[in-house]
Amino acid sequence: MSFSSHAQFHLGAKAGANLTKLDGQSFNDKFELGYQLGGFVYYNLNDFLGLQMEVFFNQTNTEIADSYSDIIDQSFENDKKLNYVSVPLLLRLNTDGLLTISAGPQFSFMMNENVLNNGKKLFKDSDFAAIVGAELNLFPIIIYGRYTWGFADISDFGGDVKSQQIQLGVAFRFF
């Protein structure tokens, strides 16, 4: 691998906080705190454009609305922790080196089971979302923030449910 192609390829680790809410009749309409932990790889196609792929563990917390308390009290606790493996594929717009704007799709796969007493699943196995965000590049440290809009209905309980998430965190670029 030549030095010029090596300089275009970058690898790193990231960790941060998630503020997530699920929009749906069965869920409280407020953001709940969770976390994320994982890694990323990106390749700069030129000075302005790049592609970034990430794989990270993403914990989403939510609370079932009180209107379903009779069902919930007999079946499970109101607070739910949803554990996902998320895989975003992002287009990077590299500005002057200090700021990077990124956007693209994210696919997430549920890692835990959430079922009612009768065996019906509460949440679906996957989620599809769009991400837009920005990074402040203080190499090797990167500070990032982004917003995720869920497009897929992720629940089999109480109508159409979509996720929204604010992600804030710090990443370390190895090279």
Automatic annotation (TrEMBL):
It comes from the Bacteria. InterPro entries: Beta-barrel_OMP_2, OMP/PagP_B-barrel. Residues 8-155 form the Outer membrane protein beta-barrel domain. Pfam families: OMP_b-brl_2. This is Porin family protein. It comes from Galbibacter pacificus.
